[in-house]
What does this fold into?
Amino acid sequence: MPNYRIAPSILSADFARLGEEVRNVVAAGADIIHFDVMDNHYVPNLTVGPLVCQAIRPHVEVPIDVHLMVKPVDRIIPDFAKAGANIITFHPEASEHIDRSLQLIRDQGCKAGLVFNPATPLHYLDHVMDKLDIILLMSVNPGFGGQSFIPHTLKKIAAVRRMIDESGRNIMLEVDGGIKTENIAEAARAGADTFVAGSAIFGKPDYKGVIDAMRKELASV
It folds into this structure.
């Protein structure tokens, strides 16, 4: 059985109590904290920056997974590394030189990855598999939380799983968008091993109950 990881997205957390929220969700069984960065330029929303990452870092020991929905990306990468990020991912369309951006992340001591929107082709992966620690597939169009899972993503997950297996590399395959207890097993069957869930967890009163239910679903795969 793969090593499945659940990564609650703070996009859906209570920002007035963020330190408490991340502590609670880790205590409830979260493996990773997913940190959504939007710039109101690459995506039509504005969220949080390195200062917030730095503020929550002392509250949790699990990895912080920073998803950069910003353009350009290179300028901000070192700031997030210094703020305590462990994983940094970005969209290929937001970088002039994808290889260089990936190397920049790794040079900062972080794991590096690419993010693919529902309509972004996978050919960007052809030349950089050796620089990837993680591939993130968006199962919604980025910009807002609480959207519904786009079913076509399952085919894309399966295609990327084949590419990872053929490469022989240990690359995480993360899926983000509309993931909930009802569809997490389906995404796992397609080949995902890391699951971002925002409103499905933070929108409920019992974080542990939701995470336990997700793990039960994953155990059935």
User: Anything to note?
Assistant: The radius of gyration is 16 Å.
